[in-house]
Predict the 3D structure of the following.
Amino acid sequence: MSPSMTSARRPGGSTFRARLTLGMTLLSLAVLATASTAIYVWAREALRGTFDSALLTVAQIEVASAIDEPDGAIHIHESVPVPLPPGMGPAYEKLVWIKSKDGAIDARTINLTRAPRLETEPALEARAFAGEASFGDVRRGGEIYRSVYYPFRDTLGRDLIAAVAIPRRPLERTLRSLLAALAACLVLGGVAAAWGANRLARRLTRPLERIAEGARAVGRASLSARIPEASPDVELREVTAILNEMLGRLEAAFQAERRFLADASHELRSPLANVRGTIEVALRRARSADEYRETLAVALTEIERLSRLVHALLTLSRADTGQLPFTFAPCQLPAVAEDAVKAHAARATERSVRLRLDAPEPIEVLADADRLREVIDNLLDNALRYAPPGSAVVVSARREGDQARLAVEDSGPGLSSEEQAHVFDRFYRADRSRARTSGGTGLGLSIARAIAEAHRGRLSVRSAPGEGCRFFFDLPVAAPERRDGRGR
């Protein structure tokens, strides 16, 4: 197993399952905490409202009972503390006092005569004398009471206030119990959320683990294996399909790379072996100057062949990495084709082949003229190599809508359907026995296709056995806004 595959199982790093579990747990805790806080705030306000309503009712009852004597004298009915059941806290205690506007205490409960002293709120008393019932907290010793200041008039029409206070202990005890219950629910909910999140994360990540295991199996076996379907979910099925498609492309690329390396090694070895053999034969005995000159000429021919091959390999390597330099500018396609035809005219005459150009109208394209010429040269080189003596090779240039089409047609042996499918592959030769003797490297058409694609064009072939070949180079016509060469 390769290091890249074992690194996925190397301990010490966080896993997607762990992060998913943690994320879902934290989300659940956040939801529970928010809900618990909302419940506590709502319950606290509701209990306080109920507590104040009960306190107001007690004050109204106290006011009604304070003036029920026949002579109208102000008095307070004392309540006898009654012990409560266990667990409900101390007995209920009520503090009541009635005060007149001059600050005199007209009546109060007996428990107010004992220490500690009750600390009242003058501001709340003033609001009550102004006719508004007011609620507030008062302190007596170390205990807090909830109080209400209730205004009323006695039978003589005097303005009085009745202040009633009861301990806040029952309310605070209830709120503490509620808070403890919510905290316990939050803890239990967090534990349950973590357990459920872990179970759900395992279920969600199990298909990913099966996909990873399938990918590891592919690496251990060969690229011809494929990852099996790991889940019925559309998203994971799509991921599996994409990975299998990528594996298919990788397999094809590796196979092409292996073929390319094998062919390149063979092509490089052949001229080197020829040069070495020629020199070794020349050095076996003393030779004349003419013989040495002939030997050097043979070696030079092979070195030139080797140089062409290395140059072609370098061009394809740069094209593969996007580093092949281009200088795009408006140029006339027929003019470039005409220069190429003139350059190959002598070779055509030597092979008794008629070479002519058919380009009746100007066609401007945005291209690198030198690279464009290289494409035409490769097409012409291929056509002249296979064109039989007495035949014709025709180069034509036509405009078809917003596309320019350059065609090179010969009357050679043609190509079968299988040969047409591979004619642009590197080192592919339809006739290997003839190609090497004619000086071809098997890379010209591959280079031409790479240059065509860099021009956003397309190189194609149309042929049949015994009917010759027609190669087509289609590329966009220069648009008006691109004539300055800045449109790419």
